[in-house]
Design a protein that fits this description.
2 domains; Yope Regulator, Chain: A; two-stranded antiparallel sheet; single chain
């Protein structure tokens, strides 16, 4: 009674009070609920019945991420309009009983430019559904179709091409042609300078730590371990720092160096990647801060994959930790173990529960980063080297419960987790993810 009268009982904090509204990782549209999947089927059936407007309404409902509100549609008399977000770009469209059209504004061209027009003409040949266009001084990408051919499958791939290509090309055009001006960017959400400061500092620190670890390894005999370190660094930056614009493309170029098929030895590729990271480390805040912002997406830039691919990647990476464990190099061993899941997170559009589990691993492995961002919910304390095993278990159980309707066989054996070190936790945690069944019912 006294607790109620005087408010002595501590109120339960909301998730927002514990964790700031910061998102991590690339957007994945491989997170549709059973209801959303049904709306896709509704769109297909309604199109076959020639109920084109109703089909589009179901299609946009399927695309809409209710948490992000990334897709919006409205009716204005006989004409209906829609918008959807993709990074720094906003797709706007309209349709009536006969036709549908959509476009994205890329940049403003105040003065006619032959090099710009040549670039766009060349890129036109690589498009399947869309085309580049010029409306007065506005460079744009366009798509249009007749309503009787606007089936959901066609619209999905056409809109994806329109949105993802535009999101990348606007940055590249502005970088390569100084006469172009940015336009239509008011919807981008700027993040606080304090958050940018933390991300910038850890970007520099992680590169420095990785370079220091590489210095201790023979570049020829240990080229495989060095490759793991560099690639996992890239995947970590991509997921936790969430770079956009030029910084993202620089990171993607570094990863591509390793996987491009040529005759170069891995030690040579490692050298190029390391030089690229060291160059990235010299970037000033004035160069990096504009590449850090929050944006909504409607399409993933990667494709889904089979559970076996994920399991094989994790298993292979964990097998390669053995030598480093036995030779007292836990840092490299941990980075290699992280790589197995990080590779999948970077290259594939993973089921949402797998990404949520990866976030738990990141919160343990890089606890200081999350603390400095303002996350008071602590899964691991790097100073005391203590795990919050109860909270980790609760988080995992919550993920399993949230997605069991879509994945009836999903399960995670928390009793198999080991908490004697970050390395043992990482190995046991990723080993369990091998067997997380995300087959749809």
């Amino acid at each position: 009674m006294l607790d109620k009268l005087f408010g002595w009982t501590k109120k339960k904090q909301s998730p927002e009070a514990i964790n700031p509204p910061i998102t991590f990782g690339r957007y994945s549209d491989n997170n549709k609920t059973p209801y959303k999947t049904k709306r896709w089927a509704d769109a297909e059936n309604l199109f076959k019945e020639k109920n084109y407007h109703e089909s589009l309404e179901a299609f946009f409902d399927y695309m809409r991420d209710d948490a992000l509100q990334n897709v919006q549609s409205s009716t204005n008399g006989a004409e209906r309009t829609f918008t959807f977000y993709q990074g720094s770009k906003l797709v706007r469209g309209r349709y009536n009983g006969e036709n549908l059209s959509a476009e994205v504004t890329l940049a403003r061209m105040a003065q006619p430019s032959v090099p710009v027009m040549r670039r766009l003409l060349e890129h036109n040949f690589n498009l399947f559904y869309c085309r580049y266009g010029l409306d007065a001084d506005r460079l744009c990408m366009c798509f249009d179709t007749e309503m009787n051919t606007a089936n959901p499958n066609k619209l999905y791939y056409a809109f994806k091409e329109l949105a993802t290509r535009a999101d990348k090309q606007d940055d590249l055009l502005l970088q390569d042609f100084q006469t172009l001006l940015p336009i239509d960017t008011e919807h981008i959400e700027q993040i606080p300078d304090a958050e940018k400061e933390v991300k910038y500092n850890y970007l520099i620190q992680w590169i420095r730590d990785t370079a220091a670890a590489i210095e201790q390894l023979d570049p020829d005999k240990m080229s495989g371990g060095i490759s793991y370190l560099l690639l996992n660094l890239a995947y970590r930056i991509d997921f936790l720092i969430v770079p956009e614009s030029r910084l993202l493309y620089d990171l993607e170029d570094l990863v591509a160096v390793f996987f491009i098929k040529d005759d170069k030895a891995s030690s040579e590729k490692n050298k190029v990647m390391l030089q690229g990271f060291l160059k990235m480390m010299t970037k000033t805040k004035e160069e990096v801060f504009p590449c850090l912002f929050r944006s909504k997406h409607s399409f993933a830039i990667t494709q889904p994959t089979q559970q076996k691919i994920i399991a094989d990647s994790i298993f292979g990476a964990n097998q390669n930790t053995v030598w480093f464990k036995e030779n007292n190099n836990p840092y490299v061993a941990q980075q290699i173990s992280e790589y197995g899941l990080g590779y999948c997170q970077y290259n594939f559009s993973l089921p949402r529960p797998i990404t949520d589990l990866y976030l738990i691993l990141m919160k343990v492995s890089y606890a200081d980063f999350f603390r400095d961002l303002g996350f008071s919910e602590e899964l691991y304390n790097s100073k005391t080297q203590k795990f919050n095993s109860d909270l980790i278990g609760q988080k995992i159980t919550g993920i399993m419960d949230a997605w069991r309707e879509k994945y009836p066989q999903i399960n995670f054996k928390t009793e198999n987790l080991k908490y004697d070190s970050v390395l043992s936790f990482t190995l046991s945690f990723t080993a369990e993810i091998e067997f997380v069944n995300t087959e749809v019912s």
